[in-house]
Model the fold of this input.
Amino acid sequence: MVISPHIPNLPYVEENGIKYFTLVAEPVKSEILPGIYMNAWGYNGMSPGPTICVYPDDYVCIRVYNKLPQPTSVHWHGLDVPNVMDGVPDIEPSPRIEPGQYFDYHFRITNPPGTHMYHSHFYTIMQDMMGLEGGLIILDPCESKKEVQRDYYLMLGAFALKNIEMGVLPSGVYDIDPFAHNSNFFTLNGRCFPYTAALPVSEGERVRIRFGNIGMMNHPMHLHGHQFWETAVDGNSIPKDNQLRKSTILVPSGTTRDLEFIADNPGRWPLHCHFPHHVSNNMTLPLGGMTTAVVYE
Done:
């Protein structure tokens, strides 16, 4: 089972061989640090939205309701779907979803097991940077608990909050500037350190961490205390003979990356972006931002 800390998996109802999911695109008030909220856009009351987990050959119907003040769409990033279901109304026959309306995206999962994402692809410059994104995982039905004991998904986020003085962290509710070139808060699954959840492991376990990145920035993610293997790129597995052993993995914009490691060095180990500004909360000095910890139970 894939765990997305702070983010639930999206439930579904299965009828006549079809898995029915529901997403509601809507404004959300997201708490990124205790007492600090941002007025974001998300799905089902959260940003990022809930993680969608499916299997190869599943037939899915994902109903998307639009409760935003402008039209929207959903693009199934990395999935091979029919043109009308791809969610880019400016180019494709895929429709835009008007406020107060819904659209049923329905397609068969034809990709192999892997890590993918979903996000808005209408008024992209605004809607993506407001937080309309989520993870989509194609599970491997043949993978056993003996192969990977812990499986985590982390979506990397960067936001420019308006009207907050640089270098301070006052409580309050802040609007996002989706058109800003620079960000002042950096998140994992919608939260900044130390408000992020730790990733518990047990000694000897094989651990997988999946990263997704929809935003404008690239993020070199560094794990302390362990070497790991890069095992997948954009939902495509890397053959074992070609896997690189690393301690830092670059997650560029628009990509997913999977890493795996053996938990063989007990302790409380940082996992963070290695850009210094990205491990800060609004440029304050203490450790923050895009940081969590791998913690041995």
